[in-house]
């Protein structure tokens, strides 16, 4: 199992915070029954998380 270096984790922490923020926005929009905006917020949150995972993996490969 590969471990993520602390430096890579620090670089991706802002991305995780943005994803959590968009998740909270999606939950709020869902509570207001604004489904199209909810879907958009979920897609953005998923894209940010995927980008963070990709970035973490790429940085870990370069440091090996």
Automatic annotation (TrEMBL):
Segments passing through the bilayer: 12-31, 37-57
Highest taxon in the source lineage: Bacteria
Key words, A-Z: Membrane, Transmembrane, Transmembrane helix
Protein name: Uncharacterized protein
Source species taxonomy: Bacteria, Bacillati, Actinomycetota, Actinomycetes, Pseudonocardiales
């Amino acid at each position: 199992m590969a471990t993520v270096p602390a430096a890579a984790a620090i670089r991706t922490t802002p991305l995780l915070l943005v994803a959590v923020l968009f998740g909270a926005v999606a939950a709020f929009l869902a509570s207001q029954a604004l489904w199209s905006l909810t879907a958009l917020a979920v897609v953005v949150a998923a894209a940010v998380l995927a980008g963070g995972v990709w970035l973490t993996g790429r940085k870990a490969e370069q440091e090996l």
